[in-house]
Design a protein that fits this description.
By secondary structure, the chain is mainly α. It contains three helices and two strands. The chain is flat, with a radius of gyration of 16 Å.
């Protein structure tokens, strides 16, 4: 059982790193509108978006963006990050 929980903990840790990479990619795209990933970065970006899109799309059905004047703040990434982190904390309690 400890091996299963350790494997799940490792997978969740990797998912957190991929989620942080998505936040970085989105920040770069929002600050530099004309930036488009090319070459190896394009492949990494596609992998990052393919992994993180399904859970984020699911959360976005329930969590609407918060309007702050002329911008909208998407809280689904933050909710997913804290949800995964809490799940990791609970798994560590059983190991």
């Amino acid at each position: 059982m400890i091996y299963v929980l350790s494997g799940l903990l490792f997978a969740l840790q990797l998912f957190l790193f991929v989620l942080i990479a998505r936040v970085v990619l989105e920040m770069v795209q929002s600050f530099s509108r004309d930036w488009r990933p090319r070459g190896f970065v394009l492949v990494l970006a596609e992998i990052v978006y393919s992994i993180t899109d399904p859970p984020l799309k699911f959360l976005r059905r329930f969590i609407k963006p918060v309007r702050l004047g002329s911008i909208a703040l998407d809280l689904s990434v933050l909710v997913l990050f804290f949800g995964v982190y809490i799940l990791m904390f609970l798994i560590r309690a059983f190991i």
